[in-house]
Specification:
The complex is a heterotrimer of chains A (499), B (368) and C (139).
Chain A: H1 3-6, H2 9-27, H3 33-40, H4 49-66, H5 68-74, H6 83-94, H7 98-131, H8 136-147, H9 149-153, H10 158-172, E1 175-176, E2 187-188, H11 195-198, H12 204-222, H13 243-265, H14 271-285, H15 297-321, H16 327-338, H17 347-350, H18 352-380, H19 388-406, H20 411-429, H21 434-458, H22 463-466, H23 469-498
Antiparallel strand pairs in A: 1-2
Chain B: H1 2-25, H2 33-37, H3 41-48, E1 53-58, H4 66-82, E2 85-89, H5 93-102, E3 108-112, H6 115-121, H7 130-133, E4 134-143, E5 146-151, H8 159-167, E6 172-176, H9 181-196, E7 204-208, H10 212-220, E8 226-230, H11 231-238, E9 248-253, H12 257-260, H13 273-277, E10 298-305, H14 310-324, H15 327-335, E11 339-343, H16 345-367
Parallel strand pairs in B: 1-2, 1-3, 6-7, 6-8
Antiparallel strand pairs in B: 3-10, 4-10, 4-11, 5-8, 5-9
Chain C: H1 11-43, H2 57-78, H3 86-103, H4 109-133
Helix pairs in contact in C: 2-3, 3-4
The chains are: A mainly alpha (499), B alpha/beta (368), C mainly alpha (139).
Chain lengths: 499, 368, 139
């Protein structure tokens, strides 16, 4: 194939622009890869389809990757799929290993991205046929599987973690049972006085940045906005590539990339579920379980490999069924319709040139992302040195833009920011565990749809056990995950008692 | 310390009050309808719309869907005609209605399709009678692709077979999204069964689901026999070989024959006009009453605030006429498989009122 | 026993009821397990404190009030200039000014200048970049 025919200079310039723009969007708290793609979508009308896609795929990869920066350095997930990055990334930064953590995260992202690229390039149509074996029933069990992470995540009592997670699910259900997922459009969990305000429920992004960014800021205010207690010692050290770490982590890296790609390829299960699932599995199979959540590279790698693995995965159903795999590819589909290109089961066969262009873009986007981020780490890590009276006002303003843009201009989303800022701040004082809460919130709505729709169709709970061989496998995984996390928390309790 | 803080707050308040004052001064421009009539569209827009940026909210949250596509094309041209920056925001039905309920100065308008009134006819929460809650503006375009599909190896070759089978006691499941464009086709089929085989209509069962991908999935699973579909999204599935689990065929297009006849000669994908006509009334007939077949064109139209100034309404009406006088835009719409269908406000209102009455009759007859 | 019939018109309540039930159960167990210990703690005179650092209590309240005022004013001011993002622009400048001074702690001339420059620059740049160039709708 004529490589130069695909990679025109314009193609490459747009790709690099996309990656850079994406990283910036991803790195700003409150702005996401989805937003980056949506913002640039109208611009692409002027380009040829291949060039348009180079730009947008660059934005997608850059946006997903950029999210790790504030997640690690500020404990604020830059995009929803980097929530699990904060669990181990931020403790590392607190220990003064911010630059190391960024380096690990970026490398894991590259690996995840390339694995998903390979899978997309080699198996796209084939995997699409696998994806359609997952109906409501299987998808519900997959969500349940992802929810088992709550048990594994609970820091103190598992019951407190589970309660926080359940509360998160409940809050996600507030509002109408949306017609767009097949619900009846009726209100629940809302007092009738508040119906006009709460009818659409809470959107993920404002909830997320409220809980993380705003609540963190209020907490900082309470403790007097002291400058960082952690010094950035590792900036002075020379950047070395730690081969030993990667040799240890290769299993984790591969597993996480595969989980990311796999979850990405199931339409509707969504982006954040990928890194959540991968994190919980990394914890279950890690030798240093107890260290997870306290700044253990394993968790960081699991999260970042998975969320970049997602990119290629989400493109699989888009390009071989015409169905987007996550929220960003749902916007991406607009680029095809704008250009009058039909995506569907015949797309790859009908448009081989465009298909090759997409693969080329995805491959290079990951490389460019790696180069750009790896060499700007020293600069990025200095964010922690910015005085907080400068940093936090900027973060609030950025979060406002991001929240308002979530639904293309709805004031309620900004109020959500404040409400969940307060919930995050006050809740923690009463023992609320934020990570299980947000995971419950993220997965709650899909859990409902898949659960209720399965029962509506089949009329019996038995279907969750008898539908297909996949169901049996999923139950096996769920049980294993639950048993492992219970055993783990027991062992931990015994250990602490001995001490 | 305390005094300083107070100073900031007072300063902030003064700034805010100043801004409010500037806002009020803007209001006082004179609007004389005779003088306006002599002006160009740009001049009228300059005088009447208090902002250089006009916002078009749409009833869909998708930036990849048909509503966004049509609205975006129309908005671009509308911006040229009015000399304004027009931007489309995919806020969704509920937020969109909220916006045009709140803002009456012409700076925000809405574009939506038949769901706007179907949601009300199906008594879905958040939907009200569009004629009394808003001002219905000009119609813009039709998406002719609204359709129903079955697996390729299904025994049903058209919706008529479905109606007959249900009439003979077979239970047929059909996947639709509740309360909207896809439910009206289902209701129409049900109504036709009720007319021909009274009492049997209960055998046509709706399976409520969400997006097109959810509907397809139910079909792949064998959970339903028929799904609501669209030519745009499902045409490639119709080209797949019979032994593919994903292979589908169209069994009904709800558009009117005259609508399909206006599409580009090349049709869509592998379907030309002739192929499409084979699934359209009168070839495939779903009777609505004694005289007429049921047809449904998915139509996009403007909605304004209930009390938006008469001159503003006139302005948008004239601007839309100007937009559709442009050959380039018309061709652009056609190339994207839309049928330009501009009707000025009074025509649009008559036309939509009749449309609503017809569908209301179907829905109420099923309630009996 | 496993069979269940869900009426579509009532299906919006099915899952929330299950979750609500689970939540009530878990909360009860939590209360039974932890309440006695808490009561013990209070009885033994150990104070249960809400604020870890009492000295900044007022600042927390002020921050919350400021955020509330900022969000409210943004919408209110924005309404005077439809679709131009001025509500965001003006109120963000005001918010950033007040909040950077509030968070500053010890005020030095250098810090104050940095705060003011930041408060002017960030909203203007954000407004130009996101509002004008990228056409993101702002309040």
């Amino acid at each position: 194939m004529d490589f130069m025919q695909i990679v025109s200079p314009a193609f490459f310039i747009l790709l690099v622009t996309g990656v850079l723009g994406g990283i910036v969007f991803g790195a700003i708290p409150g702005m996401t890869a989805t937003m980056a793609v949506a913002v640039f979508l109208p611009v692409t009308y002027a380009f040829e389809i291949k060039e348009a896609l180079a730009l947008l795929i660059g934005l997608y990869v850059g946006g997903i990757s950029g999210g790790l920066v504030p997640a690690i350095l500020l404990n604020i997930p830059g995009t929803p799929s980097s929530i699990t990055t904060t669990f181990d990334g931020y403790p590392m930064a607190q220990r003064g290993e911010g630059a190391t953590a960024l380096r690990i995260g970026v490398t894991a992202s590259l690996f995840g991205g390339l694995v998903s690229f390979l899978i997309l390039a080699l198996f796209a149509p084939l995997l699409a046929d696998v994806a359609i074996q997952f109906s409501y029933v299987e998808k519900f069990l997959l969500i349940l599987f992802a929810l088992t992470v709550i048990a594994a995540l609970s820091k103190g009592s598992m019951l407190v973690g589970l309660t926080s997670g359940t509360l998160g699910i409940l809050i996600s259900l507030v509002g109408t049972y949306s017609i767009s997922v097949g619900g009846n459009g009726k209100l629940r969990l809302v007092p009738s006085i508040l119906a006009p305000i709460l009818k659409n429920g809470f959107s993920l992004l404002p909830v997320l940045i409220g809980l993380f960014a705003i609540a963190t800021m209020i907490r900082e205010v309470e403790t007097g906005m002291k400058n960082p207690s952690f010094d950035d010692v590792d900036l002075t050290k020379k950047a070395r590539f730690d081969w030993r770490l990667w040799k240890e982590q290769i299993g984790n890296l591969i597993r996480s990339s595969f989980i990311g790609t796999f979850v990405g390829m199931l339409p509707g299960v969504g982006g954040s579920a990928a890194s959540i699932l991968s994190y919980s599995q990394a914890k279950n199979y890690s030798k240093k379980k107890d260290a997870m959540g306290t700044g253990e590279p394993t968790g960081l790698i699991a999260s970042e490999a998975a969320n970049n693995g997602l990119t290629g995965g989400a493109l699989i159903p888009l390009l071989s069924l015409g169905i987007p795999g996550d929220s960003t590819t749902a916007v991406l589909i607009g680029a095809f319709t704008l250009q009058g290109v039909q995506v569907g089961p015949l797309f790859i066969g009908n448009h081989p040139e465009t298909w090759k262009g997409i693969l080329t873009a995805l491959f290079f986007a990951n490389l460019v992302m790696f180069v750009v981020m790896f060499f700007s780490i020293r600069g990025l890590a200095k964010i922690v040195r910015v005085p907080k009276y400068i940093l936090y006002p900027i973060i609030v303003v950025m979060c406002v833009i991001g929240a308002y843009a979530t639904n293309y201009g709805v004031m309620f989303d900004i109020w959500t920011l404040l409400v969940f800022g307060i919930i995050g701040y006050v809740g923690v004082k009463f023992g609320l565990e934020v990570p299980p809460f947000i995971i419950g919130f993220i997965l709650g709505k899909s859990a409902e749809t898949y659960f209720v729709k399965s029962l509506e169709s089949y009329g019996t709970f038995a279907i969750f056990f008898t539908k297909s061989p996949i169901v049996v496998v999923l139950w096996g995984l769920i049980l294993l995950s639950v048993v492992l996390s219970i055993r783990n928390s027991r062992r931990l309790r015994v250990k602490t008692k001995r001490r | 310390m305390k005094a300083m803080k107070r100073k900031y707050l007072v300063g902030l308040l003064i700034v805010l009050l100043g801004l409010a004052l500037v806002g009020c001064l803007n209001e006082s421009a004179a609007k004389d309808s005779n003088a306006l009539a002599a002006m160009s569209l740009v001049e009228r827009a300059e005088l009447l719309i208090p902002t250089p940026n006009v916002r078009v909210v749409i009833g869909s949250t998708s930036t990849g869907g048909d509503t966004y596509q049509v609205s975006n094309m129309v908005a671009q041209k509308l911006g040229e005609v009015l000399g304004k920056n027009v931007k489309v925001d995919a806020v969704g039905a509920s937020n969109g209605f909220d916006a045009i309920n709140r803002i009456d100065d012409g700076s925000t308008i809405m574009i939506f399709h038949d769901m706007a009134y179907l949601g009300y006819l199906y008594e879905r929460e958040g939907y009200t009678d569009i004629f009394s809650s808003y001002q219905v503006g000009p119609t813009l375009a039709i998406n002719p692709g609204n359709s129903f599909s079955a697996p390729k190896n299904s025994a049903f070759s058209t919706i008529e077979d479905v109606i007959e089978a249900v009439g003979n006691g077979e239970v047929v499941k059909i996947a639709i999204q509740p309360g909207g464009v896809s439910e009206i086709g289902y209701s129409a089929a049900k109504n036709a069964i009720k007319m021909q085989y009274p009492g049997m209509e209960e055998n046509l069962v709706a399976v409520h689901t969400g997006s097109q991908s959810d509907k397809n999935q139910l079909l792949f699973d064998g959970q339903v026999d028929v799904i609501h579909s669209s030519i745009q999204a499902n045409e490639q599935f119709a080209q797949l070989p019979m032994d593919d689990q994903k292979a589908m065929k169209f069994i009904w297009l709800t558009a009117r024959q005259e609508t399909i006849l206006q599409t580009n000669d090349s049709g869509f994908g592998s379907m030309n006009i002739g192929d499409m006509l084979a699934y359209v009334s009168p070839q495939v007939s779903v009777p609505m009453n004694e005289e007429e077949d049921f047809t449904f064109d998915k139509e996009f139209f403007m909605l304004f605030h209930k009390e938006m100034d008469e001159e503003l309404v006139k302005l948008y009406n004239d601007a839309a006429a100007e937009v559709f006088a442009d050959e380039v835009l018309v061709q652009q719409l056609k190339d994207a498989f839309f049928i330009p269908n501009y009707k000025d406000i009074s025509d649009a209102q008559t036309y939509l009122t009749e449309k609503v009455a017809a569908y209301d009759a179907i829905i109420s007859s099923l309630k009996e | 026993m496993l069979n269940v019939l869900i009426d579509f018109e009532e299906s919006h309540l099915f899952f929330p009821r299950i979750i609500l039930g689970l939540l009530v159960m878990m909360t009860l167990v939590l209360v039974i397990r932890f309440l006695p210990a808490k009561i013990q703690m209070i009885r033994s005179g150990e104070s249960v404190r809400f604020f870890f650092v009492d000295s900044e209590k007022a600042k927390v309240g002020l921050t919350l009030a400021l955020l509330f005022l900022y969000f409210w004013a943004m919408d209110w001011v924005g309404a005077f200039f439809p679709n131009r993002g001025y509500g965001f622009l003006f109120c963000s400048i005001a918010f950033m000014l007040v909040s950077s001074f509030l968070f500053m702690g010890q005020r030095t001339k250098k810090k104050m200048i940095a705060g003011v420059v930041n408060s002017l620059l960030t909203p203007i740049l954000a407004w130009v970049l996101f509002g004008q160039i990228f056409h993101i709708t702002l309040p």
